[in-house]
Specification:
Blueprint: E1 15-17, H1 25-44, H2 48-55, H3 65-74, E2 77-82, E3 88-93, E4 97-100, E5 103-108, H4 112-120, E6 123-130, E7 135-147, H5 151-169, E8 174-179, E9 182-187, H6 197-211
Antiparallel strand pairs: 1-9, 2-3, 2-6, 4-5, 5-8, 6-7, 7-8, 7-9
The protein binds flavin mononucleotide.
């Protein structure tokens, strides 16, 4: 079906968006318009929190079990924001956690540019890559920064404390929450030439193990919280 103003090229089948084919047609069309309108508004006029006030969770997608697995296991997300001059700003955030099926959050410790960019242009993309299975997930949507003196901060902090401990969490200036409006899986082109996941896992495990100096091999019981 051709939708006016919509990119009609075929989307990968493993992509989930907030506008699933299960929804009524009128919502697909008007929903897409709403998305573009929301993007424009959120980028130019609306403070990040206003998006969810306007639409609630209507524009959000639910991550699949496989997507959640990758995010939960990898923890480190590469977060892209848009700088004032329109150039990309990308940096790793190792404290990423799933808030629920439609939200990712991370602790802001030392990410001044990400926070500034989100305040002006809240749409972000975050990528997670499993370097062993050579698979990943990419998510996009508006983000908002919750300062450490905000009531919501205290509600969001407990899972971070469990995962990372009090020392690291005491460094948080705030927490960034990303509303996921679209998400898709990524797989390495290695799979296109017939590679199988167990073989890739073995190959890359060996590769990364060999990169470790002898002195950094873990001692028994050395599994402290660290990013
Ligand atoms: C492995 C790794 C994990 C990191 N995790 C976080 C994090 O969870 N939160 C944070 O604020 N900074 C984290 N950082 C630091 C930021 O990525 C870094 O300070 C970056 O320059 C911030 O850039 P920005 O101001 O453009 O966001 C991490 C860096 C690395 C290398």
């Amino acid at each position: 079906m051709r939708l006016p103003g919509h990119d009609n090229r075929q989307q990968p089948t493993d992509r989930v968006t907030s506008l699933s084919p299960g929804l009524p047609l009128y919502f697909m069309y008007n929903g897409r318009r709403a998305c573009r309108w929301a993007d424009t508004l959120s980028a130019r006029y609306i403070r990040p929190t206003s998006l969810s006030k306007l639409y609630g969770d209507a524009l959000l997608v639910k991550l699949t079990a496989e997507m959640r697995r990758i995010i939960e296991e990898q923890k480190i997300g590469y977060v892209a924001t848009v700088a004032p001059d329109g150039t990309p700003n990308l940096s790793p955030k190792g404290t990423c956690l799933l808030l629920d099926d439609s939200h990712i959050m991370f602790g802001e410790i030392r990410s001044p540019n990400t926070v500034k960019n989100i305040a002006e242009r809240p749409i972000v993309e975050v990528n997670f890559v499993d370097i062993f299975s050579r698979k990943g997930v990419r998510c996009k949507g508006p983000a908002r920064f919750i300062r450490h003196d905000d009531d919501e901060f205290d509600k969001l902090l407990p899972p971070f404390r469990i995962e990372w401990g009090d020392d690291l969490c005491s460094l948080f200036h705030g927490i960034v929450v990303i509303d996921i409006e679209s998400a898709s899986n990524m797989v390495s082109p290695a799979y296109d030439i017939g590679s199988k996941e167990p073989d890739l896992r073995q190959r890359w495990l060996k590769y990364f193990s060999n990169l470790q100096p002898e002195s950094s091999k873990p001692a028994r019981g050395s599994d402290e919280n660290t990013i």
